[in-house]
Amino acid sequence: MVAIRISRARKAAGMSLRALAEQTGLSLTTLNKFEHGTLTPSSEQLIKLSRALGVRTEYLLRPERAEVDLEEVEYHTHYKTPKKVLDRITADVLDQAERWMELLDLYPEFPIKRFEVPASVPPLITDYEQLEGIAQGVRQDWGLGEKPTLDLFDTLEGLGLLVILVTVPDGTRFDGLAGEVGEQQVLVVSKCVPGDRQRLTLARELGHRLLAGRLAADLDEETACNRLGGAFLLPRRAVRDRVGDHRTALEWRELYLLKHEFGISMAACLSRAAQAGIIDGRRKKQAFVELRKRGWHKEEPGDPVEPEHSLLFEHLVYRALAEEFIGQSKAAELLGVSASQFQQNRSLT
Q1: pTM attached to this predicted model
Q2: With contact defined as beta carbons under 8 Å apart, do 273 and 239 qualify?
Q3: From the first residue on, what is the mean pLDDT of each consecutive set of 10 residues in the chain (349 residues)?
Q4: Where in the chain is the domain with CATH 1.10.260.40?
Q5: What is the DSSP letter of 96?
């Protein structure tokens, strides 16, 4: 309904009601009535709202879908993030999730398989050390071996885990969340962070999917998911092959090279070396003290890992267009671009 759309678009734009009133020339009372559903905007008012909010009028008129459901995973760990910012992120996620739902409904048989937990994951996990073997087994089940997973987005989407990228305001502590769109599992990650942080977030959320309901009561879920995520991105055997089975020290350059080979931060590589038994706990602690002294806990040296991008949604929109499930106008709406921009993109000019 229009009321929900206006409220969501305003939050996604990070605007207050007062700011929206100033940009549209509409009164606060009128805008309040729009958002509470006690007054319906006229065509002229809808155009003003869409321009101010940076959305198409079709978005404001699109029916609300009750099927979209998101389960928060990260919000509770970032309690210092202002509610206004979280509202903005949530509004963006819900908009994209709804477009995914519309896209799913276009296909007689959706061309992506449903995500399933591999049979190799045991029903009960009683020790963190088991997670190394579980990560190895999952990689084998999915045919990943021990080589770097260079395109994690593509890998996860191929397994039935849809990835949604959101824009997060500067300085906001937010990595991701997980949820469902219909029967499809969805992972949400910030597009505003380096690739190594994106990848570890997604691997951790994968851990939540794999370990749900399987951890013994004395195991902490976040700790387990972090451990599994690290082992999934940088397997024990792989890190031992690169730096050896036992070391008294590691060069920072070694960690930097591992970072860019496997797309995982230097700090995470250091943790993986300790978890693999290559260095002991004392040397790990010393290394992390030095890492903090150098300020690398905030920003690591050298070139960052490039962020990843998801092309699946766009690909499926164009596929639906080619199959004549939709026309150009609907395709542009799903992609969130103007008709002219869509035509330009379509013609590759």
Answers
A1: 0.79
A2: yes
A3: 79 83 88 87 87 79 57 46 73 82 80 88 96 96 91 92 83 72 79 91 91 95 94 96 95 97 96 96 96 95 93 93 91 89 91
A4: 1-64
A5: H
SS3 content of the chain, % helix, strand, coil (to 5): 55, 5, 40
For 73-91, the pLDDT digits (tens) are: 444 344 466 777 777 777 7
Contact 225, 334 (CB under 8 A): no
* Euclidean distance between CA atoms 159 and 59, whole angstroms: 30
Q: What is the identity of the amino acid at 111?
A: P
Residue 60's Cβ-count burial label (10 Å; 0-12, 13-18, 19+) is buried
CA distance 197 to 165: 13
* Of the candidates 93, 96, 219, 203, the residue with the CA atom closest to the CA atom of residue 148: 203
List pLDDT tens digits, range 46-79. Answer: 888 888 888 777 777 766 554 455 554 444 344 4
Query: What class does CATH assign to 1-64?
Result: mainly alpha
- Structure tokens that stand for 50 in this block: 């869409």
Q: Which tokens is 55 given?
A: 């959305």
Contact 81, 174 (CB under 8 A): yes
